[in-house]
Write a structure and sequence with these properties.
Distance between the termini: 13 Å
Structural class: mainly alpha
Number of domains: 1
Radius of gyration: 9 Å
Number of helices: 4
């Protein structure tokens, strides 16, 4: 399942984070990072997926 989340995180980073942690603080941080820059959103999403 982590492979699917990582692929979704590359396409749409908040979706991958949502599938991992739901509507938490990390999800909203990822939305903000994705809006500020796509690459930071991807990095944060992959970090969250691999950390948990």
């Amino acid at each position: 399942m982590d492979i699917l989340r990582i692929i979704l995180s590359i396409i749409l980073p908040p979706v991958g984070v949502f599938l991992q942690v739901g509507f938490t603080k990390q999800f909203f941080i990822n939305v903000l990072l994705t809006l500020l820059g796509y690459i930071p959103g991807i990095i944060h999403a992959i970090w969250i997926i691999l950390k948990v």
